[in-house]
Amino acid sequence: MKSQNCDYKFCFGPWNLSEGSDPYGPPTRPTQSFEWKLRQLKENGFDAMMFHDDDAVPDIDNKPYQQILREAKELRKWLNDVGVAAEMVAPRLWFSPMTIDGGFTSNDAKCRKYAIDRSLRTIDIARILGTNLIVLWLAREGSYIRESKNARKCVDYLVQALNKMLAYDRRIRIAIEPKPNEPMDIAYVPTIGHALALAILTSDPKRVGCLIESAHAILAGLDPADEIDFACSFEKLWSLHLNDQNGLKFDQDKPFGSVNLRSAFNQVRALERNGYGKKGEYVCFDVHPYRTTKPENWAEHLINSRKTFLKLVQKARSFDESAAQKLIAQRNYQALEQMVIDHLLGN
């Protein structure tokens, strides 16, 4: 396969250097400062950092507007000084007591207003940090029991929220990150198809696209490579979170390619054939260190994910497409499958 893209830019978020806590146990590594996490990013050759709004401005709900802007400007100077870009900013709407039963789709009008207002502050932060990409992981936009909400009305609420964000700043782009479940039992926007359908209902569909996460696609029972191709067919893949997932469980955020190397290979092939990155898009790794990881190995899951990705890029570029096409024409899929396996094994 001949690549349309020679180089990729990489990033991760500060939450990807987590301390090891999970719902069943406390942290297993000491808390590290944001400065330390930023240093890990730079020292290990990554190009940009993803942000939640409260990664950029901690304790954002308890600070006045002007202080939020001031702290965002201080962060921008800091990023400029070390040569790191901000890839995106996302409102962390799932932590607040106001969003227990949803943010944009809450039955409580005050809670819906809170979610929108906080999203507008996120746009202010993104503008200062130099990115126009706003990511929406609609974590609590769903229900625990279906009788508790009117799903049709919730679609209207989502569109209203998106429209207010689009009107607030005409330069932003909104990338919806779908997930079928967790933390809500069932989500309203579980797949890329749902995200792109929602975009059509907004006031400016051209500025609403998507972010694909490998594990979220797997949790929906879908193939991440197919989701990549689908989004790229609409020219709507504006960011992605590469990781891996061991079946239909909780969201595991395993290192990229660690569970299913063939699936990872096909995701890279999809990115290559669609020229992902030519317009400045980043390859983001949303992966977490295992709970057993020691502090001295803290960043290895990120380093290994990028290493695997780059090796698979070379595998994608050296794959004998001509030979594959001959087998496809013969419908000799058994031989094609073995050809892929042999290629991945280096035979």
Overall structural domain count: 1
Number of helices: 12
The CATH class assignment is Alpha Beta
Q: Please list the strands of the largest sheet in the order they lie side by side.
A: 3-2-1-10-9-8-6-4
Indicate the overall shape: globular
CATH architecture: Alpha-Beta Barrel
Range of strand content: 5-15%
Average of the residue pLDDT scores: 96
| CATH fold topology | TIM Barrel
The major sheet is characterized as:
8 strands, parallel
Give a count of the beta strands, DSSP E runs of length 2 or more: 10
Ends distance: 18 Å
What class would the helix/strand composition place it in? alpha/beta
Sequence of secondary-structure elements: EHEHHEHEEHEEHEHHEHEHHH
Q: Name the helicity range.
A: 40-55%
Q: What does this molecule look like?
A:
The protein is α/β, with parallel strands linked by helices and 347 residues long. The protein has one domain: Divalent-metal-dependent TIM barrel enzymes (TIM Barrel, Alpha-Beta Barrel), CATH 3.20.20. The chain is 43% helix and 13% strand. The protein is built from twelve helices and ten strands. The chain has helices at 34-43, 53-56, 65-82, 109-129, 151-168, 192-200, 214-219, 224-233, 261-273, 300-318, 321-329, 333-345; strands spanning 9-12, 48-52, 85-90, 133-137, 142-143, 173-177, 186-187, 208-213, 237-242, 282-285. The strands form two sheets. An eight-stranded parallel beta sheet has the order 3-2-1-10-9-8-6-4. Strands 5-7 form a two-stranded antiparallel sheet. Helix 1 (34-43) links the parallel strand 1 (9-12) and strand 2. The longest helix has 21 residues, at 109-129.
